[in-house]
Design a protein that fits this description.
Elements lengths: L2 E12 L2 E12 L3 E5 L6 H8 L7 E6 L2 E2 L5 H7 L1 E4 L11 H9 L7 H6 L1 H21 L15 H14 L4 E5 L7 H16 L3 E5 L3 H7 L2 E6 L2 E6 L1 H6 L1 H8 L5
Parallel strand pairs: 3-8, 3-9, 6-7, 7-8
Antiparallel strand pairs: 1-2, 1-4, 4-5, 9-10
The structure holds adenosine-5'-triphosphate and magnesium ion.
The site of adenosine-5'-triphosphate has 13 residues, from strand 2 and helix 1.
Length: 255
């Protein structure tokens, strides 16, 4: 078992608001871990800290035992962490295929000199890129629509394309912020299957959701936030019986 990620005593304050209060979490290689909690409980803030968008007020994030706290997002991405956002962020006027290829650019090492001096290598890299993109499009079941514009894809397909693009960076850990939000039941089922395939590739997944049913189905372990405080962690079975969790959810106004 390899401990990939550690969140140690992380506190995030925004002015007078404590969005995260002394939170500890860890994720091992190959796990699917969920972060759940009502609206405003600090879930996305945790992703923003892990991916370098925010530097926490206190505490540390370690990836493979190395502190990455407050490192530039592109450097963290190069280390092997990739995310999707709560609201879709695709290049809408590009094809599905091109959106995936763009995700790879964090990884390929060609520059202008290379292009002139090493054309064969460049071509080889391009070919590899293309093949890899096709594999990823198959993985998320978008191969048949690979040359369609991202904007013309259905909502569920766009969400899956974002996942393929994040994987294209070569990421070891994939952070998905409410990947099933707004999906109908069939789209959610398809998403579950895709996340299972990603696990088969030995990737690690951290996903946020406030739909208990969805996370219980897919996650091996869960962390529960409420008003920035970690109120529980454990297996889905343990969490579903936890009184603090039940209270936090019953206290929530249904959207
Ligand atoms: N940049 C910011 N500046 C000020 N306050 C912020 C900022 N980002 C988040 N917050 C606040 O921090 C709290 C936690 O927000 P966060 O987005 O992490 O919640 P969440 O659990 O992802 O909620 P949701 O389920 O609605 O997506 C909220 O009260 C939010 O308004
Ligand atoms: Mg959020």
């Amino acid at each position: 078992m390899e401990r990939l990620l550690r969140i140690e005593n992380v506190t995030q304050k925004f002015g007078g608001l404590t969005a995260l209060n002394n939170v500890n979490m860890h994720v091992d290689k190959g796990e699917i871990v969920g972060i759940i909690g009502p609206n405003g409980s600090g879930k996305t803030t945790m992703f923003n800290i892990i991916t370098g968008i925010y530097r926490p007020t206190e505490g540390q994030v370690l990836y493979q035992d190395e502190p990455i706290t407050g490192m530039e997002p592109y450097l963290i991405s190069r280390k092997g962490l990739a995310r999707t956002f709560q609201n879709i962020r695709l290049f809408s006027r590009m094809t599905a295929f091109d959106n995936v290829v763009i995700g790879m650019h964090a990884r390929t090492k060609t520059n202008m000199c290379d292009i002139v001096l090493h054309l064969p290598r460049k071509r080889r890299e391009e070919k590899e890129c293309e093949e890899r993109a096709m594999e990823l499009l198959k993985l998320v079941d978008l191969y048949d629509v690979r040359y369609e514009l991202a904007s013309s894809l259905s909502y569920g397909h766009q969400r899956r394309l974002e996942i393929a693009r994040a994987l294209a960076t070569g990421a070891e850990i994939l952070l998905l912020d409410e990947p099933a939000a707004g999906m109908n039941e069939q789209e959610t089922d398809e998403l579950l299957q895709i996340i299972r395939r990603i696990k088969e590739l030995k990737k690690t997944v951290i996903l946020i959701d406030h739909d208990m049913k969805f996370v219980m189905n897919i996650c091996e372990r869960l962390y529960v936030l409420n008003y920035g405080v970690l109120i529980a962690d454990g297996t889905p079975e343990e969490i579903s019986k936890n009184q603090d969790v039940i209270d936090a959810y019953l206290g929530e106004d249904d959207e």
